[in-house]
Amino acid sequence: MDETELVRVSPRHTVRLASEYAHFVRRAPNKDFVVRTIMRREANGLPLVSADIVIAGETTRSQFPLAAQFPLHFKKTYYPGRLHGDPKQEFDRQTEASALIGLPPPIGYGPDMFRSCLLPGTPYNRLSPFGGEPDESNLPVARKLSLATAAGLFHLLSSAFDALSRLHDGGLCHADAELHNLIVCPSPLEILLIDFEAAETRSEVGDAAWQKHCDDDFMPLLKEAVYLQCSLGPQPGPLADMARQRLDRLFKNPDRFRQEISDQANPSA
Questions:
Q1: Within 10 A of 123 (CB to CB), how many other CB atoms are there?
Q2: pLDDT tens digits, 60-81
Q3: What's the pLDDT at 44?
Q4: CA distance 69 to 9
Q5: Region for residue 171 given its phi and psi (left: phi exceeds 0; alpha: psi -120 to 50; beta: otherwise)
Q6: What 3 state SS string does 35-86 have?
Q7: Is the CA virtual torsion 158, 163, 207, 180 positive or negative?
Q8: How far apart are the first and last CA of the chain?
Q9: By the 8 A CB rule, do 157 and 164 touch?
Q10: Of 16, 189, 205, 208, which sits with the fewest C-beta atoms within 10 Å of its C-beta?
Q11: Kind of pairing between the strands at 46-55 and 33-43
Q12: pLDDT of residue 64
């Protein structure tokens, strides 16, 4: 078995890193060392954006105090051909979110770069069995879902809904709260929002548009909550209540889902 070492990547998360990489955590390389590329987009052979797990080099650690504390972290790099938002705004918005809902803090930014703590987990959309089209195709999936799986996913989703609600109460909307931007970390078990590139404050969008932004944030979670109630039956709480109340806005054929949830409330003996 290859040797590994535990490395801290946020105030409450650690990962196991191969010893040959862990050496660079203890002794900084001259420049950032790319451990793994998560995503890279190109157009006509030219890079647009990349997302990497890096070990911070000497310059990075001296520039950003948290990079010295968490050398192994996430780095997003924009290239000249890619139109993008202001990394400073993303940094500021994630800093606000960190204060509001307890996310690990961002690490730093530059004109074409953003850094944040690495969250060792799995995007929620990869755990969910749903997502088929048309929406009704998810009903047979819900019927076959085990109680343990449906209950676990519902509790994770409820936690995400609570965090998003507290974010809104604090005057910040995510504006891209898709299920792939919810990371499920196993230790400690929690679900965390990522990617605040598009986030906006209430003062920026104004009262007229604020409610729509909040509704849009909730939409992916509400659809998932409906599917899970089609497996479990109607659930108590603000997430489940809102999902059932907004069935007409979520689906083209809402009565199919109402009936399915009702049927699960009264299973056969």
A1: 15
A2: 999 999 999 999 999 999 988 5
A3: 80
A4: 8
A5: left
A6: EEEEEEEEECCEEEEEEEEEECCHHHHHHCHHHHHCCEEEEEEECCCCCCCC
A7: negative
A8: 51
A9: no
A10: 208
A11: antiparallel
A12: 98
Q: Give the amino acid at 261.
A: I
Structure tokens at 83: 């139109």
Low-confidence ranges of the chain (pLDDT < 50): 1
Do the Cβ atoms of 17 and 74 come closer than 8 Å? no
* Segment 120-168, tens digit of pLDDT: 999 999 999 999 999 999 999 999 999 999 999 999 999 999 999 999 9
CA torsion through residues 55, 59, 62, 65, sign = negative
CA–CA gap between residue 163 and residue 157 (Å, rounded): 10
State how far Cα 82 lies from the chain centre: 22
pLDDT at residue 48 in the model? 86
Residue found under tokens 């069995």: 129
Taking a C-beta distance cutoff of 8 angstroms, is the pair 154, 235 a contact? Answer: yes
Q: What is the Cα Rg of the chain in Å? A: 21
Q: How high is the pLDDT of residue 80?
A: 80
Alpha helix stretches (DSSP H) within the chain: 19-26, 58-63, 65-69, 87-101, 124-127, 138-144, 147-169, 202-232, 238-245, 247-250, 254-265
User: Measuring CA to CA, how many Å separate 118 from each of 53, 64, 92, 127, 228?
Assistant: 8, 15, 18, 19, 29
Please tell me the total number of residues recorded for the chain in this structure. Answer: 269
